[in-house]
Amino acid sequence: MSESWLDEIKWTDDGLVPAIAQEEVSGKVMMFAWMNRDSLAETIATGRAVYWSRSRQKLWRKGEASGHEQRVKAVRLDCDADVILLEIEQCGGIACHTGRKSCFYRTFKDGEWVETEPVIKDPAEIYAGSKGK
Amino acid sequence: MSESWLDEIKWTDDGLVPAIAQEEVSGKVMMFAWMNRDSLAETIATGRAVYWSRSRQKLWRKGEASGHEQRVKAVRLDCDADVILLEIEQCGGIACHTGRKSCFYRTFKDGEWVETEPVIKDPAEIYAGSKGK
């Protein structure tokens, strides 16, 4: 497969592009992460979301530790060709390493950030016997 | 109002934070942009989305040229405190400077990016007599 579709993306100087993951069925924005060429190419090839972990400097196959893989239903690109939107099916219904459905679980109310989503599963249980998210 | 809620955000070295705007009523992801402290503070204070234009290096009051303002219904923060999610009402139903509803109007299909959203209004008409988006 030609990689011209990868060349159309405006990568950062570090070779990355921001990626938003949205749950297809609910429309819920689940998480935000970064991708490099390899992670996006693997995402397209396998249909599973693969990000680039900036902290660990390696490919991050979402769910490899937690089992909470993301099956990719659609991959979209924005007008400036510098942001990716994934529409996904979230295995286990949990995207966040805190055990919540979405990473965006805090809401601004009266001058502070308030937790507005419950922990569905204890992270200690999610990551029993493994490392990373 | 105390600004401790601003201090809780992990700003980039450039003093920015990524921001995702989602249409509250439809769940549609409309656009992605960046914010600095001033833009987020003004967003909270006024209830209108204000971003930081990296290309113009100035506050970008969304809709100031197009009239397509965004009324902010909720402001959320992710688990790492380094990404903002805005739930908005999109004035005019158009977020993208190309005249489409969402900036994410291209979808990956069979090895290429395909336009999958219509232009609702000609940009020449949107920006008649003004500059910028």
Structural class given helices, strands, pairing of chain A?
alpha+beta
Strand content of chain A: 25-35%
Sheet having the most strands of chain A: 4 strands, mixed
Give the largest interface pair and sizes: A-B, 38 and 38 residues
How many beta-strand runs of chain A?
8
Question: What is the CA–CA distance across the termini of chain A?
Answer: 31 Å
Counting H and I runs of at least 4 residues, what is the number of helices of chain A? 3
Oligomer: homodimer
SSE string of chain A:
HEEHEEEEEEH
State the strand order across the main sheet of chain A: 2-1-6-5
Mean pLDDT of chain A: 95
Task: Report on this structure.
2 copies of one chain form a homodimer. Chain A has helices at about 5, 35-45, 125; strands spanning about 15-25, 30-35, 50-55, 60, 70-75, 85-90, 105-110, 110-115. With about 130 residues, the first copy, chain A, is of the alpha+beta class. In chain A, the strands form 3 sheets. Chain A has a 4-stranded mixed beta sheet with strand order 2-1-6-5, with helices on one face. A two-stranded antiparallel ribbon of chain A has the order 3-4. In chain A, strands 7-8 form a two-stranded antiparallel sheet. In chain A, a hairpin with a 6-residue loop joins strand 5 (about 70-75) and strand 6 (about 85-90). The first copy, chain A, is globular. The model of chain A has no long low-confidence stretch (mean pLDDT about 95). The interface of A and B includes residues 5, 28, 75, 100 and 107 of A. Strand 7 (about 105-110) of chain A pairs antiparallel with strand 5 of chain B, so a sheet runs across the interface.
